[in-house]
Structures are given as C-alpha cells and as structure tokens.
Amino acid sequence: MSSNPFSYSVPFVGNHSSIVIGAKGKCIQSLQKEFGVKIQAMKAEPSKNLPVPYFLIEGDERDVLFASLKINSLLSLSMSRSEKELKTKNEELMKDNQEMISLLDEMDTSPIVHTPH
Q1: What Cα–Cα distance (Å) separates residue 41 from each residue in 1, 26, 38, 117?
Q2: Residue 13: which domain range?
Q3: CA dist list (Å): 114 to 4, 99, 111
Q4: Which of 21, 76, 48 is nearest to 7 (CA)?
Q5: pLDDT tens digit string along 30-71?
Q6: 32 in a domain, yes or no?
Q7: pLDDT(3) > 70
Q8: How many independent structural domains does the chain possess?
Q9: pTM of the model
C-alpha cells in the first residue's frame, strides 16, 4: 500500500554532500535502496527560495522523512569533523603566533646594533 508521492529538501553547504553521495555514488545508492526513496543532489535555486544546494528526497512520506533524518545525521557528522579539524588548525596557528610574538618581544628587548653604511 503506497501513499501519495512526497518530497523533502535537505540543504547542505560546502563539500559536506560528499559524505551522503559517497565514493562513486555508493552511499546515496545505498540510502535509496535502504529507504525505498529517490535522492538527488540539486543545485541552489534562489527563485524557489532554495538559496543553497540541497538533496531532494522523493517517495512515500514516512520513508522520505526517515531518509532525511539519516541524511541530516550524515551531514552533521561531516560538519562536526570539519569543525574539529578547523579547531585543531586554529590552535596550531595560535601557537605559531605566540612563538612569533615571543621572538618579536626578544628583538625589542635586545640591544640595538647599528651597522655603518
């Protein structure tokens, strides 16, 4: 027994879509099979009030909503991994900056050496 066709859009940004699509489309194919829905990666459509790319999920309402939960979960995982990487890089940059500030401080307190021209 199938209900009326239903669609739902799940927006994404950056390269986070790759976790949903997977290598050679394997993940998105697996999701379509698991939930019995059609999933397409779509470009932004500002004229339709869709300002960022999105996944369009179509099928039975219940299946579509479960698939959208799984996709949102995958996107969140990708974003949290990205945030963790950015935080680590930021901490490294802060450490480098502190080292540079220390070097500059040492230069400011060292005796000035004038060289004749």
Answers
A1: 28, 14, 10, 66
A2: 5-105
A3: 85, 26, 10
A4: 48
A5: 999 999 999 999 999 999 899 999 999 999 999 999 999 999
A6: yes
A7: no
A8: 1
A9: 0.71
